[in-house]
Design goal:
- The chain has three helices and eight strands; from the N terminus they run βαβββαβαβββ.
- It is α/β, with parallel strands linked by helices.
- A four-stranded mixed sheet has the order 1-4-3-2. Strands 5-8-7-6 form a four-stranded mixed sheet, with helices on one face.
Length: 130
Amino acid sequence: MAGIELVSLLVTEYDPAIAFFVDVLGFELIEDIAAVSTRTGAAKRWVVVRPKHAHTGLLLARADSDAERAAIGNQHGGRVGFFLRVDDFDAQLARMRAANVMVLGEPRQEAYGRVVVFVDLLGNRWDLLG
């Protein structure tokens, strides 16, 4: 058996990213532990969040160089790069709107389900799928 366990997501700071994914999107905080320092000697944490009942999670990786900082919020060149499927689309969308998450346009029906694009706290585009 094989599968993708984690996908790295560059962040400016750990705690605001944790708050967004856990408090706003409803993810679980799986790990938050001190890790070996970065190549520049800065303190580093191993922070993993993931949607409830999911197998694949996000490794929140604090940017540690100018090149990494430049990629924050644009890890996919302005395209949708992440896809969050939820059981209750309307409830999740209402939760996100109540938290002032930027939602681009109105939900639409596609062959694969309801979809709307939203932007995370870093500027990355996501599809919310129901």
